[in-house]
Prior knowledge:
The chain is mostly helical. Helix content is 41%, strand content 6%.
Amino acid sequence: MRVRHLHAGPRRALPKEAMPGLVVPFALALLKEERRYDLVHSHYWLSGQAGRIASVGWRIPLVHTAHTLARVKNAALAEGDAPSRSCGCGASTRWWAARTG
Length: 101
């Protein structure tokens, strides 16, 4: 396993609502890497979207492990916690499954 730190977006803290806007710049930075990989493994819905772009560009498989899904997280909220907004992951997952067979 290799962990790479890529430059994509500003070098300052951003609100989580700004993160979807960095998916494509992050994926493009990833695609500029000279080293090639056997597969892409992602863990979060945003990294899954960037990973899908990279996997298509490199023509390698994407393995995605979803650890926290809004629907499940919201079902077990502690008293006073605000629910997470849906990321639309269900539609993305269906699209990826349809594209990859």
